[in-house]
Amino acid sequence: MDSAELRAVQQPLKDAYREDPEKAVVTLHARGHLDDAISCSVETGQALAVAGLHPATGGDGSLLCSGDMLLQALVACAGVTLRAVATSLQINVAGGTVTAEGDLDFRGTLAVGKEAPVGFRSIRLAFDLDTDASEEQVRTLLRLTERYCVVYQTLARPAELAISADRAAE
After folding, report:
1. Helix, strand or coil for residue 15?
2. Separation in Å, CA 48 to CA 41, 51, 55
3. What is the count of structural domains for the chain?
4. Which residues, in sequence order, are bridge partners of residue 33?
5. Which terminus, N or C, of the chain has the lesser number of Cβ atoms within 10 Å?
6. Which residues is 103 bridged to in the sheet?
């Protein structure tokens, strides 16, 4: 897809969202099933992803780690966003890689130390780009990717969260 094709696809959406901002609000869904083991099978739309305990919390390493899945979602979103920005600005990016790594102190999730946080202490996102773009263009790509990447922005400015539970009828 080139810049003109991207604009042709996105312009009617942008116009509709300007005219009626509520049309831009879309509720995304995720669903999982609690398994018999200490695991949860998550429907991805392509396959089931079975998440379980990380080896640092007693898992055997055979199941996916939800922390890894969070980083994978960041990589996917940032990669797609960078591609869209590069396409829109007509900056040639022939390829490359996107990596994310994050530091966790598992004492927090295992309730070993109250001073240890539950969750990532820090996350680093990096691109290795195959491009002839100038340094200024690469800085623009990164700035706009950061600005428009949904997962990055959600991690940087957490969304309002709510939790609830219903009980199955006996």
Report:
1. helix
2. 6, 10, 21
3. 1
4. 41
5. C
6. 122
CATH classification of the domain holding 127: 3.30.300.20
pLDDT digits (tens, 9 = 90+) for 23-80: 999 999 999 999 989 999 999 989 999 999 999 999 999 999 999 999 999 999 999 9
Task: Answer yes or no: is 169 within a domain.
Answer: no
Token couple for 163? 């939790």
Q: Give the global pTM.
A: 0.92
Task: Supply the Cα-derived Rg of the chain in whole angstroms.
Answer: 20
Beta bridge partners of 122: 103
Cβ(67)–Cβ(56) under 8 Å?
no
> The domain containing residue 49 runs over which residues?
3-156
CA-nearest of 33, 54, 36 to 109 is 54
- Measure the CA–CA gap between 117 and 104, rounded to whole angstroms: 8
pLDDT digits (tens, 9 = 90+) for 126-140: 999 999 999 999 999
Report helix, strand or coil for 97: strand
- Is the pLDDT assigned to residue 169 strictly greater than 80? no
